[in-house]
Structure formats: structure tokens, C-alpha cells
Amino acid sequence: MDDAILLMRWRDDAGTVRLGAFTGTGERVVPLGAEWTRWEAVQRQCRERGESLAAWLRPRLASEPAVAVDPAQWILPLEVTEVWAAGVTYEQSRDAREAETVSGHDIYARVYDAPRPELFWKGAGSHVAGPFEVIGLRPDATWHVPEAELTVILDDQGDIWGYTIGNDVTARDLEAENPLYLPQAKLFYHSAAVGPAVALAETVDPYALTITCEIWRHQQCRWRAQVETRRLRRRIEELVAWLGRAWPLAPWTAVMTGTGLVPPDDVALEDGDEVRIGIPPMGVLVNRARRIDPSWVAVRKPPPRVVRIDPRDTVAVALGALEPGHWLSEFGVTVRDPIPFGHKVALTTMAPGDPVIKYGAQIGVASRAIEPGQHVHTHNVESVRGRGDLVTERSGEA
Amino acid sequence: MAAEEVTFMGYWRPDGRAGTRNHVLVLPLSPAVSTTATRVEAQVPGTVSVELHQDVGPDLPGWKLAVRTLRGWVDHPNVYGTVLLALSANDPVVEAVVRDLPPSVRWEVVSFDAAHGRRGAELRAAEVARAWVQAAQKMEREPIAVRHLLLATECGGSDACSGLSANPSLGYASDLLIQHGGTSILAETTELIGAEGILADRATTPEVAAAIWQTVAHAEHAAMRMGVDFRGGQPAPGNIAGGITTIEEKSLGCVHKGGTSAVVEVVDYAERPRRQGLVVMDTPGHDVMQFVGMAAAGAQVIVFTTGRGTPTGAAIVPVIKVSTRTELKRQLPELIDFDAGPVIDGYLTVEQVGEALWRKIRSVASGELTAAERWRHREFGIFPGWEDE
Fold it and tell me: Can you tell me the ipTM of this complex?
């Protein structure tokens, strides 16, 4: 097999999208004419002429001048329409998932052996991150991992057109908590990243590649691992065929083929971490992780919560200002007074002298009658001043 | 519980303890040699030093605690070896610090008199430190059960959210460590006033309960004699505006960072715990003196919750700074290692954040650098005791 032919795009200094092709490392690329801005169009033209894209490109790569492109200017190599992904296609992935899940039933082991693969939706192409773009972390999950995957690009006829690098960012805590949370574990803003270059399918052997994944935090490599694609248990054509059985494959779909690299359980992506996934000859896909929040993408904040810290508590704390009339469904209480952020609202009726319980312990006694929903603070509670025998006695009863 | 043992990647020490770091420490035993210690650190990459700002002598207040603290730093699982700097090899502090150190401890005294002056001492200290750094770098981390971890908990610059997000999350993580057989230190005696009854109820024996009452009473009494009334001004007006009603409530929010585990022991400042579980240590509330004492007890990781942010760090022990609100993490991204704010924003529960903090603790124990380490914060100060003795 000749050298792999790689395709990329970049945005030049004038802001114009340009196409480039290269063999080797991509330090220098051969630019196509400025009239070309999409590989989809180049491919269509080749097909009309009855020529393969690789055959059309190879003489140009040999004869035309190459230029250096600043890596920061590289963008998604093509505009993918949809991203799908497969799971549990490597032995290591099966073992790690089986160890962490609480649901049991061997679901990962069974899908590893079953004829039908695990396939899931990773979002519309418009929500995919390209090279050096931010990958998202759910604000309501705590254990995200990158999943470094060989990624197939299907052409407008559903055929395998090329291979690139994909990152199937996953909220592992949600997936482990309950398999029904899989869609939320897999699909959130910028939960998929693709790039930086596509190797034309006919010029690369997808089962002879090495995938390296690294997590960098503050210039320190926090985790690094490597796997070879020959350990991929399923054939790539098989995965694509299953996906196409009942889904009209959109032109230029990306399909991630599953990960063989699972970080140990003390490694979780954090805001600011950099993920580097290398699959020579397709280069290195670099993305920085960022917690999704309304300051950079139009997502919604959850409503203010009211928390009871301990089930024995007679008060709850407002984590957001509450207005009178607000119904606290969790406690069956209607708020009666304005409750500022961080202040307490009564959950039970307390007579003067009754203990006021927070953290499962007495924080003072009611100095006047308190009704559920009322503000609980210095105006109706007094300290019994620590030291005391009273504290010991009361909490002994609780 | 899962049968599989939870581990971190650490360094085994000959005495059976485990290090989360492998430092070569340059420790001055008198303020007069602090500058020399700093110079040695600058000359030998891979070493850490501290500055000693107080004179230490048998005739000076705080002698006992100073000796115990300095010994605890020399005989610390995170320390590969210690170069002790002194003006004279005959200085009583030298004798007191090195006397009967276990044979497994690697130390050498470099004194100005034996080395014929400042320049000689600096050269000799650098020579020893350089050889140790080279040897230390050859050691490799190994998987070690988390029950070998001694976690120190601390809070400073509390805000209205401390008792709701960061402290309970730390408590949850501390409980997880203890469930896995590890040990946590809850300190800051002055913050325990008002919550001593709760802690005493959780004591494993009547003796431990009595020690809790007695320790808090002692600190309080000492403070009164100094003319400080902890309770009169507590909670502070800012606390009240933030929703804290009583001193009991404030203290409970603080002791929540010790979780809900039983209290197995009360130890003195800088004293090494003998039992596994939650241990109460008698320390002042001052950030630096508190973590220096907990480090001296052998703590290999410190978690410090904060509502205002603080740059402080210990030379030999990683300090994980936990913000109470996401806003603080945004304001001070270079100081905060972990954000408990999603509890306040309603995204996550205390249990979820506690679980994530437990993961962070293991990651830092395995070598991830904290903000204080990246910025080389090395604050040092020894608690002299509650009153002159």
C-alpha cells in the first residue's frame, strides 16, 4: 500500500476555508484551488469522471508545491452531518464496564459477544467539536472520560470513505449508575470531537493502526494509554451495516468504532484538561475540556434548590432566594416569608423552647412559635451556647 | 463493600507508612539559617525548604510542640531525606529533633560551625541534597491500599456555602476513606466550640468523649484568659447576614468536614494518630499552624475548603483547595483545585461531589500536582500552645 493520503481543511488568514491534502505528518500540505471549500464537492466531481479521489490526488501531491499551515487554523476536515458510535468493541472496554456498573446482568459482556453491536447517537454534526475546539463536560456529572476511537467517515452513498480520529466523551458516572442513562451519558454539547485529518479509506489499513490517548493537566501528563486497532473485535463494515439496517444513513456520517482505552477509576476529566488522541498517520486530535455552562453556550441553569442536609432536620436551606407562596413539593411546605439565599426555612411546627435541628443536630431552640414555611433565623431562634449538657441530652434522644 | 482493594500510587517507606510525594527537605532549625535553606533549595532542583521564623529553645515558649513538629516533618512518609541546617551542631534543638529518630529516617545535620561558615554549610547541604534527589528520583510509585492514607481536613475563609457544599462533600469523602480503612484528622479546636457535644456523642469510648470535652474547654479557657471571647462575637455579623443563626450552627457546618464517622482518638498538636478512623487534633484555627501540625502527624494529603480562597501550601504535603462556590473557582482559577459549587447551583448532590472529591484525593495522592505545589507555596509556622507553660 502506498503512503496514506490525508485530507484536511483550514481557515486561512482571510477567514476563507481551504482544502489541503498531504502524505506524511501534515507539517506541509498541498492546497487545492481556492474554488474548493468542501471535500464533498471534490469527491462528487471525481465520481462523475469515474476516477477515485486518491488517484486524482496522488499526482498533485507529487508535483504541486506544499505550504505550512498553522495547526491552530485547522478545522473539521469535513462537515459531518451525524455522529454515531459503537460500544464494547474491545475486550478491555467490556471488562472495565462490567466492573463499574451497578445494574449487573452482564449487559456489557453480553453485548460484546452478541451478533448485534451496541450503537448509539452522538449528535448532529453541528454540535461536534473540531481540532483544538472545546469538548463539553456535563455540569450534572462528575466522572467524564475521553474515549479515543478510530472513526469512520461514510460518503454520500453510505460507503466507507475514510478514517479519522474521534473522541466519544462519556459521563461514566451516569452510565454506571443506570444503563437507561446512556443517552445522557453520551449526548451533550460537544460530547464528540473529530479530526484533524481524514485518511482516504483505500490508502490505509484500519486494522493496523495504533491509538494513543493522553490527558494533560497543568502541563503534566495525567494519564496515557495505547491500543492497537487489530484488537477491534468487530469488522468496521459490520458496524456500519447494522447502523444502516433501519436508519437511512445520512451523507457524510461519522461512526466511532468504540474504545479500547479505559482510564483507571481515579482519572476523571476536569475543566481545563487537554485530551490528545493520536492515531498515525491521521495526526493528533487535541481538545480542551470545559464544563458546560450558560456563560458560553445557551444552556439553562437548574431552578434553585432547597436542601435538607440530614433527614432529622426541622429546617431546610434555600440555595436561591425564595418568595412567599413558593411550594416546596419535596417537603409539602409552602414558603411564608421571603427566604434569602443560604437562609433557613422551617419544615415543621416548633413551639418556643423546641430544638431547631440542622445537620441532624441541635443548632439552638425556638424563641417563639415557628410555623412550617417561615424564615428561621435570629428573630425566632436562640443559641443554647454550645457547652452543653443540653446538647448532649437532646442529640442522645435523636 | 467491593472486594477489590482501592489503591493509590505511592512510595513505600521502611516503617510501613506510604508517601504520596518523595521530597528531599531542607529544614532550618533556627531563623538564622532560613536564608541558607532557601538558597540550597534554589541550587538543587527537586528539593523543598521552608523558612523558620521563630527561635526554638528549651527556655522559650512552645519548645515541646516545636520539637515534636520538626521531628514529625523529618520523620514524614512524604520525605525521602532531610538536610537539617543549624548554626551549631551543639544547639539543643538539634539534639532534641534527631534524638532516637527511627533508623529508617534519612537525615543529616549540616551546621555552620562544623562546615566552617555559611559558604561551607551551603556547599555541604547542597551536596547531600543533590545525592538524595538523584536517589529519590530512581524510586517508583507502587499501588498501595488507601487505608495507608492519613487525610488532614481544614477550612479557612468560610462563607455561607461552606457548611452546605465544600464541608459536607469533604465529610463524605472522609467517610469513604475511613470505610476503606484509612484515617482522617479533624482539627481547629476553636471551631469545635458548640459542636463538642455532637462529636463526643460520636466518640468510640467514654475516654475519647471526655478528651473531646476537655480539649475544647482548654482552648476556650486559654482564649478567655487572653481576653478573647470566641463566642461573644460568634457568629460574626457576616455569618448572620449569610444565614448562620447560632455558634452551634456555624460549628456544625465546620465539623461536617469530618463526616459522620465515629471519633476514635483525640491527639495533641503534631501528634501521630495511633488508631484508624476519624481523629480529632487539638490545633488553633490559623491556617498555616494548623496544616503544619497535621503534616507533622504524618498526613500525606490535606484538603482545605475555602469560601474566599487562600494561596497557602505545605512544603511536603499536597494541599487540595476546595471552593464552596463555582464563582470563586472562576475568580481564582489558579488557586482552586476542586469546586464543590455544583451543590449550590443545584447540579449535583453532596454525595456526588463527595465521590468526585474522593477521586481527586486519590489522584493527588498518586502524584497529580495541586495548585499550591505548582506555585511552590511553602508556608510554615508552629503553634506554641494555648498558653505559656
Answer: 0.86
